[in-house]
Amino acid sequence: MIIDLRSDTVTQPTPAMREAMFTAQLGDDVLGDDPTVIALEAKAAAMFGMEAALFCASGTMTNQLAIRTHTKPGDDVICDVLSHVYQYEGGGISVNALASVSLPQGERGKLTPDLIRDYIYSPADPHKPLSRLVVLENTVNKGGGCYYTVPEIAAIRQVCLENRLILHLDGARLFNALVETGDPTEAYGQLFDSISICLSKGLGCPVGSLLIGKADMIRQARRYRKLMGGGWRQAGFLAAAGIYALDHHVDRLKIDHARARKIGAMLERLPEVEEILPIDTNIVIFRLSANHLAADYVEKLAAKGIRSVTFGKHLVRFVTHLDLTDQMITELETRLSER
Ligand SMILES: *Cc1c(COP(=O)(O)O)cnc(C)c1O
Question: Which residues line ligand 1 (CB under 6 A)?
Fold first, then answer.
């Protein structure tokens, strides 16, 4: 039995999701008439009380489309140094948007109004790029799955309004935050200019991400998606999985969170584990003592049938997801404590 904790992206579609995909009505999304894609986009927009949505192949694509759409070449994007848009999107901010980037260092990857204010350039200073866009991430992957509260975001929104900054949310794991806080999706629709959510993380779809925002912005993003080669034809197969996931796989994220906390308790008993980041959602990041390299440790775990990833020289990440079972969690405890 392999216990795969590398990411919540490793899930396989459930039988019911496959059935929804197999029976989906299809059209040609590039021609704009795939009914299942249209239904998914309408559902996502309505969910957040926003005007429109665009179904794309990946979270990287929806984030990059947002950044490209919101900025002009030479503009500056403010995001935490740990953020996915900076760390894990191939330098896309500079390549796709020709924008520069300012990188405040928040607590566990979370920005605050003060941190953002420190990085806003004066539009009157010709030496500086124009600060244009702020990107928040919720939950924060590199922060160990921590999340923002609505009042925290509202305070950031206020700074953005005062300084004419656009606010985008990388919500790849937004639903993991929402099942913990109980905040309504509509509140997010009011606080952000655009939101990207991933369907292929905790929600268990094989592929897919949605960019949600104003109708004009989404029209522009659709143009750029085509330019990037992201137009897809009978995408309704994948959109059907998305609709199924939004209907059936959101509330169950709480199970993933409970399992993550359970795994945290197991790690606490291991002598080689020095520190565990607080476990707020489905991500467990732990630091090994100085004489253990993460790369070696991950290899050792792999030999015991436990898959994980390194997250720094001494840091290892586990992520819980839909395809884990109680039996795997019990078995994990046994294997972790084997010397
Ligand atoms: C996974 C992830 C993304 C998108 O990744 P893709 O693999 O391109 O879908 C974006 N932001 C965060 C925080 C993520 O964890």
Answer: 58-60, 63, 84, 137, 141, 170, 172, 198, 201, 209
